[in-house]
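ugh finaly. both done.
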Amino acid sequence: MTPKCVDIWSKTLSIVKEHISQQTFVTWFEPIKAINFSNNQLTVQIPSQFFYEFIEKHYSELIERSLQQLLGENAEIIYSVVMNNKNEVLGSRQNELISQTAPLSPDIYLNDRYYATQLNARYTFENFVEGPNNQFARAAALAVSKSPGKTTFNPLVIYGGVGLGKTHLIQAVGNSILKNNGTTHKIFYISSEKFTVEFIDAIKHNRAQEFSMNYRNIDVLLVDDIQFFTNKERTQEEFFHTFNTLHQNQKQIVLTSDRPPKELKGIEERLISRFQWGLVVDIQPPDFETRMAILQKKAEENDLKLPQEIIELFATNITSNIRELEGSLIRLMAKSSLQGEDVTIDLAKAVLKDLSLGNRRNLSIEEIQRIVCDHYKIPEDMIRAKNRKKEIALARQISMYLSKTMTTHSLKTIGLHFGGRDHSTVIHAIQTIEQLKKTDKTIKEDLSALQRKIELASL
């Protein structure tokens, strides 16, 4: 191992990290070690064949692209997989052996230090921004943290899309119990991916029984992203018995998933049934006000003084992923620092463009409807319904006008997106808004603001 190869891998990971979640990074990338660099080839050591197959299937292109971004198109990544106390070197299209290096020892012992290092201290209830989208989930998690194993919320299953705060909330449960109960509870947090990897290593090293005993001796088990148990029969079998033992002993179980348990495919029915024994709650994407609060809190935590218009810009255009929302501020400050520029609205727009990887996507009528309804604070389904209230009718006409002027859709297609209205209704809406632009200053300003939002949303 040379300092140069370690430095190259560290810089490559910095690029990779921008495109994946923190949990994915910790689970699948932190265990990888750089061991050699020569002839523009970087060799990295991976702890198991299973690990290699997962990386090859899901992240090989990202790693190669990141390395080439750093070193040029001729750069190549070579994987050295620890197998039976030797390293088997695998390129993306080659199999050959090189000199042996010391294998990585699997760490599956759940000693006190191992328990203590799994929780991220930053994830607490205090810095979790509550809104209508997550209020029930937060309340349930807080109740569990106050009386682990003693409520009817066992297991507690929290589900929702990527980047909505599930990992924050599940770890907040652990941190709260740790704070209130000290060392009287064994609290363990793990992702389902890492649970699977550790279980496979335990089988490989004839330590499956020890693995089982360790996990069944936990007071509070927190498992992230249970959807990754899909189609892993042996792992599901192991987790089924672990779940039963903990539940029968009134130990607390908290799980997260990207969808409701009943919609998880490739997971045994008996496990699905147990996931639904307690309480299943969801987290939805945050509304505009919650997104604003999240950004303001993030700015305060990092001692950033940001103009309100920048916060509104990010809150308007990053709507479904809190991780991206918070990351936008970090990118903004990094861009300001690296380029020596002041933090301005133009720099913020450049950050939004970067986040979209420079690709303008096809703008949909649904996106225009969402932005218009968000602007006027009305439910989206209202502009598609047969509702003739003045404010609803105006929002509908503006949406039709913008759909015609900012997309290539036909009048007939636009009408179909507004409750099946015919093309003559769309023509009337366009003519009405064209006239109002000339006579109503407020409408003109609203149209300008909406066009800016829609343009940014399409970046």
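ok and the 2nd:
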Amino acid sequence: MSTVTDKFIRYVKFDTESDTETELTPSTPGQMILAKELKKELEEIGLENVSLDENGYVMGTLSSNLDHEVPAIGFVAHMDTSPDFSGKNVSPQFVENYNGEDIVLNKAENIVMKVADFPELKQYKGQTLITTDGTTLLGADDKAGVAEIITAIEYLAKHPEIKHGTVHVGFTPDEEIGKGADFFNVKKFGAEFAYTLDGGEIGELQYENFNAAFAKITFKGRNVHPGMAKDKLINSMLIANEYLTRLPNEEVPEKTENYQGFYHLISMEGGVENSTLQYIIRDFDMDNYEARKKFVQDLCEEFNQKYGEGTVSIEMTNQYYNMREKVEPVKYIVDIAEEAMKQVGVDPMVIPIRGGTDGSRLSYMGLPCPNIFAGGHNFHGRFEYVPVESMEKAVEVILKIVELISKR
């Protein structure tokens, strides 16, 4: 039986970067390659009902060995990595017995992970860290979660003397582009509730996340030769610039924390005749969320009154909602995870997710699904790392949750 570290190192070698442009599921072929590998692994472990569908969703079941009924539970993780930074040719590095100082990721390119920039490194002094080589992301988001789930389910399968209820496992594509639950078959999965292993540092336990929207705002101008432009030329870029300055400059990701929402400009493109701004809008509170959406829409109307009807148009879509509404009625599933952490020596940190997770959408699809730490830090970039000890503790938490459920 390979360790969680062995599995993780193997999985990160698969290029599974997702892609917003293909309109396919999975959005990239590398995800299906890893999905086939995971399906094979679950079959070799001896799970039942192992499946891989045409959209890249992998599922499997470890049947109960109890003589009484307990809830069927699930564990879910995603296979893809972020399109924001390269996940190709990942070359993980081990920093054993970490000394608490700066880590040279790539000497040739002078890429250094500095404690001054990432002070949380100090808490892992003496542990083994897995880092990047400075040229790619690592993929702990969420291949650490995949490795932890498979390690735990393999342990249970190989130790039938351990009593457990029915446990379902599922691995999804395209979570990083907001499509991880698009084709997830909750009925087929079969669990009454589940946990995603997709959180950050050790101890994280989350059942609240942002309400989220995407807005694309288009500005139309009129191009005229600049030498003859007086009272004729309309520069869409300047109108777009005026628009963005009207949004609260303190309500952005880099200036907010905890339960504070934001407007995040993620893209701007333009010329004289046409310009676009793309925003993601986030807030935990539904009333505040709706107010934020209304604000950007009302601002478009104001600009149309100022510059002429049709100057500004907006396309807005809801992406996901705060899972708290769906999890709170079954809050005991959060309490079980919290107790499991305590029993294996992990201090629980019940905090909101300043982002999204498959668990959010799955909760609204009828599968309440809190989120548990996978152990990584600095996701989506060259400074991503994961402590081996955190992954090992995540495996222990999964096993303890299964044990606690078996005694209900």
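summary for the 2nd one i guess: Residues 219 and 388 are 49 Å apart (CA to CA).
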